Amino acid sequence: MISTGVEVSSEPPFEMRDISDGFMKRLPEWLREELKPIDQRKDSVIINSAHRFWIEAGQITYEYHFGKKNNLITYYLSDKPMCVKKQFMQYDEQGNLIDDLSKLDDDHSPEAQFIQRVIELGVLVLFIRSTFENIQKYLNNIRIKIDPVNDYLQRIRNQISYPCATDQEIDKIVNSVLSDQNISYSAVSYEQMNELKTKIRSQLIEADETNLNKIVEAICEACRGSHHMDMLKDWCQIG
């Protein structure tokens, strides 16, 4: 209010007094000259400079949350942006102040443009967050039929004859080796037979691990589910 020559108290009841009776007395002469009321200045600063101010609220964004347990919809409002706007004014033929439409207050300063970009980014963040939450809700509500998946994995498990390191498979290989060499089962000592079975079991375990890793990697790559690799591997091993 200094420009009007009035000093207003910041505390209720907001008493007013002439600026010449207040803190202006303690200012140096040159500064008092700069802060003179407009009607006392001689630099024509008041000419064509009349304007009005008002406070305007920006667009309010919001989001909502639907509670499945209580069937309540909760709305969350964002911060309400407030800004001070101004409009230049001019005198008409009757001496009344009216808006000067030839002087619109379009602030194209770098600071204003930066603030506009920040606001736009904030709105984009809200859109992205809302879209992500909607997708997440959709995915959570998807009911996947598990039986066809289990059947498919079971067929693969049977096709690769997993696991191979079983007593039945080891006995089959031992009998095949002895038959190829025309050696009777009774002709092999107990220690030799245990040693042979141990070597065969070790090789089969290694082959099982290699084949299992290849199959699991192929399935995860085809289904784009690398984050389920350990789970799939456990299922193939345990069933």
Pick out the low-confidence regions. none
Mean pLDDT: 76
Q: What string, H for helix and E for strand, traces the elements in order?
A: EEHEEEEEHHHHH
* Shape summary: rod-shaped
The class by helix and strand makeup works out as: alpha+beta
Total number of helical segments? 6
Quote the beta fraction: 15-25%
The total strand number stands at 7
The largest sheet, given as strand count, sense and whether it forms a barrel, is: 3 strands, antiparallel
Query: In whole angstroms, how far apart are the ends?
Result: 83 Å
Q: Largest beta sheet: what is the strand line-up?
A: 3-6-7
Provide the gyration radius in Å: 43 Å
Q: How much helix is in the residues?
A: 40-55%
